[in-house]
Amino acid sequence: MKKIYLSFFIAATALAGMTVSPHLAWAQGASPAPQWSPSATVPLPTDSELGEAAPAVKSLRDVTPKTLVFVFDVSGSMRGELMRRAREATITLIREGTQPGDRLVLYTFGAGYETVFDKTLLTEADKRGLIGLVPSKPGDGAGTNIRKPHHEALKLLEKTLPNPGAVVLLTDSFNDEPKKEDAAYPTYLSYYTPGGRLQKFPDSPDNRDYERLLRLMTDSQKVQIFGIGVQIDKSGRPVERLPVAEATPTSATDNAPPVSTPIATVGGSAKKGGLPMEWLVGLGALALAAFAALIFFLRGSKPVPLRIKGSPTGAHDFEIGSGQTVRLGGVTAHSFDAYALPGFDAPVATLRGTGGRFSVSPMVQEGSTAPVNVSLNGLPLDRESPLNFGDEVRVFAPGTNGVMKEYRLIFDDPTKSF
């Protein structure tokens, strides 16, 4: 009987040793202890939070390492809401759909195209630097050629096969022909046929190679093509549209004979009335300056709407004027000046209105038993920083039983219509 008990004791001891051996290996330096990663414990945001980037994020999030190429329209038609949507989708996809080890490339295009960045992510913090390079306003000049940068993206991905990759085309889908004197016009003719209604493709070396790569990517099943603001046909091409010409207003007098209108003569003997031209010009300049100052004042003083979402308490809308603040967290928070974060008894950060814009800064945690970490777009928030629509603030701290407590807060425009 003693031998049976002894054998049982030895077996139990060996089993316990097997259970704790990984922890002993960490202590001895045989292998590094795993580090906690916010993205590892937080579920994927909902489709409404991901917005137009949802299909691409869900398809690409777990594919790594991959090459992801953004083809971003900055032509003159990409203004206001169109630019905001493209920018927000790009930021969301960088933040939620990529991992360290992924290569990210961004081309901007109008009549021509440029490479904004081409970088392989080494850490989550690298994302913030790329997010800061995402375009926020359109460029100058007329003309659109999405096929050239799309072709360049496919050539880049061909070199990485059979590794996975994706192209994201961000555009309003309208194509207008560059001016003939534009330096980019000859390249445009390599991909488009003037008067061809966007359906007649030129028999040029560039276009033939473009079509070859479209077929190759489709057959490989390794490269995905997504459209934000534009449909993608079964060949992988973006479905482009021609600009709609504005109708010229007509009147009942369009066909009437011309009517002579008396004009003032300079240097004649006719009597002149009114103020001298110099005075009128000066008064006009003063009026414009006063109007500009008024607009600047109203923009800075008028409260700007902001929606915060990500807490179990749900989304909450604020209107923040210049100098006004909204706290994140705190047990004594009131709904009009704070966004509640259950489990965080003290405020962790402060939003501030600054002349029609926002900034966010961390708050010192006095007497807190557990360190609270706050990050902005993946990078630690250690000073006051600008806050834009689409940005993400993460708040996390060790909770009870070693379980991390975290909130992912998204800042949005409550007036957006999509």
Architecture overview:
The chain is α+β, with helices and mostly antiparallel strands and about 425 residues long. It folds into two domains: about 40-230, von Willebrand factor, type A domain (Rossmann fold, 3-Layer(aba) Sandwich), CATH 3.40.50; about 305-410, Tumour Suppressor Smad4, CATH 2.60.200.20. Helix content is about 30%, strand content about 20%. The strands form three sheets. A six-stranded antiparallel β-sheet has the order 7-6-16-15-12-13. The chain has a five-stranded mixed β-sheet with strand order 3-2-1-4-5, sandwiched between helices. The protein has a five-stranded mixed β-sheet with strand order 9-8-10-11-14, with no helix packed on it. The longest helix has 27 residues, at about 1-30.
What's the number of structural domains? 2
- CATH topology call of the largest domain: Rossmann fold
The largest sheet is: 6 strands, antiparallel
CATH class descriptor name of the largest domain? Alpha Beta
Q: Examine the secondary-structure arrangement and name the CATH architecture of the largest domain.
A: 3-Layer(aba) Sandwich
Instruction: Report the structural category.
Output: alpha+beta
Q: Count of DSSP helices?
A: 10
The helicity comes to 25-40%
The share of residues in extended strands comes to 15-25%
Order of helices and strands: HHHHEHEEHHEHHEHEEEEEEEEEEE
Low-pLDDT parts are 1-6, 8-41, 246-274
